[in-house]
Amino acid sequence: MLNVPSQSFPAPSSQQRAASGGRSKVPLKQGRSLMDWIRLTKSGKDLTGLKGRLIEVTEEELRKHNKKDDCWICIRGYVYNVSPYMEYHPGGEDELMRAAGSDGTDLFDEVHRWVNYESMLKECLVGRMAIKPAVPKDYHEEKRVLNGMLPKTQVAGTLAKEGPNSPSYDWFQTDFLVTIVIYTKQKEMGLDSVIVDHQDDSFRAETLIKDYSYFIHIGLSHEVEEDFSVRVVENVGKIEIVLKKKENISWKCLGHPLEKHNLLILKKDTGLYYRKCQLVSKEDVTHDTKLFCLMLPPSTHLQVPVGHHVYLKVTITGTEIVKPYTPVSYSLFSEFKEPDLPNNKYIYFLIKIYPAGLLTPELDHLQIGDFVSVSGPEGNFKKSRLQELEDLFLVAAGTGFTPMVKILNYALSNIPSLRKLKLMFFNKTEDDIIWRNQLEKLAFKDKRFDVEYVLSAPTSEWNGKQGHISPALLSGFLKRSFEKSRVLLCICGPTPFIEQGIIRAGAPQEPVELTAVSPAVCQAWCYQCGHGCHWDSWSHCLTPLACCLPPCSGPVSIIPSSQTQVAA
Ligand code: HEM
């Protein structure tokens, strides 16, 4: 019997609750959309009550401003008067009030780290906290030049004892090449574990190691060509970045350290780094959904791991708006062999355009050749969860299909044990089904794959399944290919879809039995970031519910039998 999570799932203290489950958008009053907020901030109105003066704020002073009509919040050492924003906050006034008169940094980061508050609240800035909060040891401390000795990694902030072994780096040169080598001492490293950006003389490599990022950030001492190559020696976790010298001279040092250089920092404390990507093509996929192709800058190496998302940032009348999106592959048939092609320069997004929204019409109006800022990848979905799977069930609603694309591609091409991969795809009408032709061709071509559509508002000609997600629909769908097969279930859709359909509807009556197989079930979660009338599109960040139960490799016996087993 597959028990889907009870109402107390995810666990109240879990990361998932903090990050997405349990949070919801509130209906905002007429005239309180994001665009209205942007207009207000541009109106020249004094939004702080300080007539543009910036002040130093003591903790005592901050605490006094804790009422709705006089509410200050400190984020990363800066204090904002958020009272004017109250009615515009998509999470509602009460949520914002949780941080009233205090340092809301952690709370803010738990809920929506990506939200660009600095840009959105710049007219609300009251000043800085008088006592600066402790900051990580900064890079200025590394005074010496980088001369090729293995420098000892500095660990920023409060690195937990259980953090990864400190990585290190080294470099060497030939007449024509400079090779930077990063020793991660980790086994599960791939080409998608390192993101490299090289602009002018600034060289930045961010290596993703579990929940941490390790940075090499250097102002190079000499010029190099735009293109470079990245190699990963997977079994020892060694990453080599090979740069081509512009001049055939011997370098005395690699360069000088820049921000965060040689630091290992918890990912959640690192902030998002963006690079400008050029729109190469935009194709209609359905009546309201388009496939956008963005080209990475020539001197960027970035591959988004399966099940991870990035943030797109556009500036709308001077305010930066950020939303998460999960990249897809070009089509369901694109090759998905590891390692990915090194010259993988394109990122594809399936984006539904909401005419009344703000971000998506802006994206829709982009011309070929225009630029959009794209962040590095985020997410905690692990490809290793797919290894040795026998049955993979994907349940998606609308553009919740997007994280499924790469999972599907990857699983069919790379998991030899896979026997069955089923997608249950919920939409309103037939016209809303993304890549229907491709899905059907794939089902025809690969007998392991099967797709079922469920429509909530079909025409009278529709003779397929209809309705909303329910135990009855799920129980018919979640049939494993043989007893005790290794199963993974991923679900992505707006929060109500997940909550109403899976959590509230309870367990399907007679589905599959899940015993102490590890990994058993991984419920994946979608950050809901914009359904409703004021924001664009909820989007599609596949994040497994990793937190409320021990890692799947841990003892399964402590998992209550009434709860779904959840893979970390
Ligand atoms: C520190 C206390 C805060 C709390 C507890 C909080 C809570 C929330 C919650 C629960 C949501 C709904 C999330 C969802 O399901 O999409 C939300 C959305 C949002 N909040 Fe806050 N918030 C806080 C501060 C702020 C601040 C200071 C800003 C400043 C700009 C802000 C901007 C936003 C935006 C833009 C969204 C919509 C996010 C999206 O979907 O893209 N929040 N917030």
TrEMBL record:
GO terms for molecular function: cytochrome-b5 reductase activity, acting on NADH; heme binding; metal ion binding. Its main location: endoplasmic reticulum. Residues 1-20 have a biased composition (Low complexity). Residues 164-255 form the CS domain. Its EC number is 1.6.2.2. One of its GO terms (biological process) is superoxide metabolic process. GO terms for cellular component: endoplasmic reticulum. Residues 54-130 form the Cytochrome b5 heme-binding domain. Belongs to the flavoprotein pyridine nucleotide cytochrome reductase family. This is Cytochrome b5 reductase 4. It comes from Heterocephalus glaber.
